[in-house]
Every structure is written in structure tokens, then in C-alpha cells.
Amino acid sequence: MPKFSAQSAIDPIEYDLEPWGPKGALPEPSQDQVETFFRRLKDLQLFTGKVMAGADKLAKDEDVDALVEYAENLPLEELNKYKQEIAPWLSDVSSGALDVEMLRALPHRVFGAFFKYIATELNPKETAD
Questions:
Q1: Closest CA relative to residue 95, chosen from 28, 17, 22, 10
Q2: Which of 71, 117, 118, 120 gives 20 to 30 Å between its CA and that of 42?
Q3: Number of Cα atoms under 13 Å in the Cβ half of residue 44
């Protein structure tokens, strides 16, 4: 008779941030933690989507001068604010297993890849068979 085991039904969310941080496995997040994570991600995507839409239009128009001016005038303060906010999201969804300051100290590309990995692992569309 088939049997269901929650412990073997899903793989743990394992990570290795060495040499900049720890390695281990995240505690399984609650439904509320996952929903909060994706609600925050949706807000971030709305902001970055508007930024990228403006750049895409200028690129399609092949207006190089306008594209350079657009890039120079991006709201960097706002972009940095979102970057600073993402680290606590990862800490929250890990029930505090990941330290916010450690996450903020990760090299940019490592942080981005790790954020993408966690978002993919938590996304039921990505993990469904």
C-alpha cells in the first residue's frame, strides 16, 4: 500500500554560501512566509517592470542618446532601497536562519543568484511535477 511521507515528499532547500556565508538547509517556510515573500516580489517586479519598459522602448527606437540619459537618471536611490529590502525577505522566509547583514554583504552576483534560487524553490509552479 502506498504511503505518504512528508519528509521525503519534497527536497530540502539546501544552500552553500561559502566562503562568504554559511551552508545548510532552510527550515521549511510556512504558507504565510511564502505568500509574504511572493507578495513582496510582485511589488518589486511592478517597479522594475516600469523601469525596464522605459529602457526597452528607447532601445527599440534606437535612440542611443536618450537610452544613455535614461540609464544615468535611473532612480538609483530607489533601486538601492529595494536591494536592501530583499535581504530581510530571505531572512524572513528562512525563519531567521539567514542573517540579514550576512546576506547584504554577499557579492552582488552571488546574492542575485541565491535570491533567484530561493524564489524558484519556493514557487509552486516551478516545483510541481
A1: 28
A2: 71
A3: 17
Query: What string of DSSP letters covers 73-99?
Result: TS-HHHHHHHHHHHHHHHHHHTTT-S-
CB 97 within 8 A of CB 109: no
Strand partners, 16: 23
Provide, rounded to the nearest whole percent, the portion of the chain with pLDDT above 70. 64
**Whole-model pTM?**
0.68
Q: Which three cell numbers stand for residue 75?
A: 532612480
In this predicted model, what pLDDT tens digit does every residue of 34-82 receive, in sequence order? 988 888 877 776 656 665 565 566 556 555 566 556 555 555 565 556 6
